[in-house]
Write a structure and sequence with these properties.
It is a single chain. By secondary structure, the chain is an alpha/beta fold. About 40% of the residues lie in helices and about 15% in strands. It folds into three domains: about 210 residues, Isopropylmalate Dehydrogenase (3-Layer(aba) Sandwich), CATH 3.40.718.10; about 35 residues, no CATH class; about 100 residues. Strand 11 and strand 12 form a beta hairpin. Helix 1 runs parallel beside helix 12.
Length: about 375
Amino acid sequence: MAKYKIAWLEGDGVGKDVCEATMIVLKAVGLDAEYIPGDIGWEFWKNEGNALPERTIELMEHTNCAFFGAITSKPKKEAEKELSEKLRGKGFSYRSPIVRMRQLLDLYVCLRPCKAYTGNPLNYKDGIDLVVFRENTEDLYVGVEFPKVPEEMLKIKGMEKVPPDAAISLKVNTKKGCERIVRAAFEYARKHKRKKVTAVQKANVVRVTDGLFLETAKEISKDYPEIAFDHTNIDAMCMWLIKNPFDYDVLVAPNLYGDIISDLSAQLVGGLGFGCSGNIGDSYAVFEPSHGSAPKYAGQYKVNPIASILAGKMMLDWLGEDKLAARIEEAVAQVIAERKVRTYDMGGNASTLDMANAIGEKIASITSAR
């Protein structure tokens, strides 16, 4: 019997391509696991009306963690049709399965390491090494929205400022949600000997919800006196990350702002082909590349699989397989540094599987040398 059971959720488009590449690397490193395929994605929504079928949720409940490829966003015409139906009061059926997964399984940490590997021609600057902690279940992503103001809401004090025809999205930050994401960031910083945590928010304007986040971060920072703490507004953070990326170490933010700065930080270290992500709760986690499904490239084995392979490395870290995880990262770093195998985004012509095989072969040589 395998040591681990992993839900294998390839999803749509190039999700299948990069999952195949990641499997090559996981087998090369010798992870003792059974990979159980699960259904997720746009095709299941079209055929069954559910992009995350109940059988897939049940599968995850009986596995140690999940690995996820990519999801196709709603095509524009479909999105416009649904929005039109919602505005006419007919409901709104499609919701991102990854967002639903995060909330159903309480995967409240979105962990996004952003590291510039030497030899990557896409690095903004060599040496960048940032980690983003994004709260993953609250904020505007709770999905409570109104296409127009409900009559009963107009009776609430302060709502007289809101026009009756306004569309409303609720921003929800809780004390518990703020506490646990901030503490997760500080615990990570302590464990990995990181020097500073920066809380990213907009409390000077969004005074209640972002104010709660900021005050909570200030309180918790006192429990970690050895770690420097500062805070900044989301707009300033975007500017300073471009100007002085080496001034930052661990960033922690509510959901929306975390979404923004994690993509910005990923671009500093090579873009979509290098952006790995972990959705982590207290007892379960889902790991994924942060890119989309890129339908036009599906089945062409063209896209860079390093984001997906590094997500696999994150999965091994979470499982406690530190030595195997380190071996994957070492192999990735060596292949990038050698500058011989490069996918199209890096200026080369290597396929998705060429890159995976090169990393797998490098793992074999590292293993044999020890």
